[in-house]
């Protein structure tokens, strides 16, 4: 029976949550892109992030066909040199929000003109670097930053420099509350990001930039939040921002990221194309000039689904009448999302990926606190035992990128798989790495 028919509480993990090139063998074991997951953990150890490289490429292409070549991959979701190289090969732009992300993107060979540089508090050093290498676009976020860019540009740009003026987008707060967790909601008035539309700050900032000799205002940007399933927030933001776009006469509107992805059985999500189509329809309906290019900065929707994390079970505690605890060799240091946002995940055994999962358990890590939970209400097969490998799907975004060394736990390895081959893209940290900053 196709496993999707048996999905449900206690049923198998929904195959739709596994990376695109997943196949479950006759004996139930999982392969991704032709590479057996249990062989990968033998080779690289656990915890292990396994990315389906071709799925990332497909998602980047979907974004380019939905929003055009100026769409930017939001690298905060997951970045390493190999990821930046994929972005270069697939041809999108890249959104970086710190000097660190900019440096890694450059190490991956990105053309600086394809960098979109974000951040609510860019340092003088970061701006100097950005202007010197000639980044394509800086997304300005405050009046202080406008002054800083003017001063730096007048020092750094001369007739011999690549750039003649700094091209900027203005980040505007549309005054819209997206339906998502408050920690990742950014479109409301009470926020540290951007210029308020309602107070007139956005218009004032546009005027200052247009009058300056150092900057060119290429467009308006907003980002209302992340992990959003309903398009109404985007549509309301477009309606609110339309008059500003028209009155300032810019030719680019960037709607940020935020497209939600399904993490657990039964969850539904919008496709990239549907997101783009509805947004473009709203742009038209709001009277924004037809020659304004509408583009976006998807992060999670490019990489989340392409990855699973595999852990090894070290301890099982069955507390009668209370709860079963299954402890693995990672935890909040490789996936802080459950503890930060109460995010849900599925868990399954890669050795029997299509098995029923009647046992309820809390999947926990090895850190020294009760909040160290990977899956609050996991379902697993009854025969799970110490030494087993357990996987959580949809861990490709904001997992490794938010990983820490809490309790001096070394960060996991990351592998990419494609067409029957695996390659290590980030090696596992060692004890030497844990000590490398100590003097
Ligand atoms: N553009 C801007 C300006 C952003 O701030 C973000 C995400 C994105 C694009 C990409 O959004 P996405 O498509 O990934 O939703 N750590 C949180 C998510 C924080 C998102 C921060 N900004 C989480 O794990 O849910």
- Estimate percent helicity: 25-40%
Low-confidence stretches: 1-7
Q: Any idea what the radius of gyration is?
A: 23 Å
Sheet having the most strands: 9 strands, parallel
Please count the helical segments: 12
Total strand segments: 20
Describe the structure.
The protein is 28% helix and 23% strand. With 439 residues, the protein is of the alpha/beta class. The chain folds into two domains: 15-52 and 305-435, Beta Barrel (Lyase, Ornithine Decarboxylase, Chain A, domain 1); 53-302, Alpha-Beta Barrel (TIM Barrel). Strands 5, 6, 7, 8, 9, 10, 11, 12 and 13 form a nine-stranded parallel beta sheet that branches. Strand 6 (93-96), helix 4 and strand 7 (115-117) form a beta-alpha-beta unit. It contains twelve helices and 20 strands. Ligand LLP is lined by residues 74, 76-77, 95, 118, 184, 223, 226-227, 256-259, 297-301, 337, 341, 398.
Provide the fold topology.
Layout: E1 22-24, E2 30-32, E3 35-36, H1 37-44, E4 48-52, H2 53-67, E5 72-74, H3 81-90, E6 93-96, H4 99-107, E7 115-117, H5 124-133, E8 137-140, H6 143-156, E9 166-173, E10 195-196, H7 201-211, E11 215-221, H8 232-248, E12 252-254, H9 272-285, E13 293-295, H10 300-303, E14 307-319, E15 323-328, H11 337-341, E16 359-364, E17 373-380, E18 389-393, E19 413-418, E20 421-426, H12 431-435
Helix pairs in contact: 2-9, 5-6, 8-9
The structure holds ligand LLP.
Key features?
439 residues; alpha/beta; Lyase, Ornithine Decarboxylase, Chain A, domain 1; TIM Barrel; 2 domains; nine-stranded parallel sheet; eight-stranded mixed sheet; 12 helices; 28% helix; disordered N terminus; binds ligand LLP
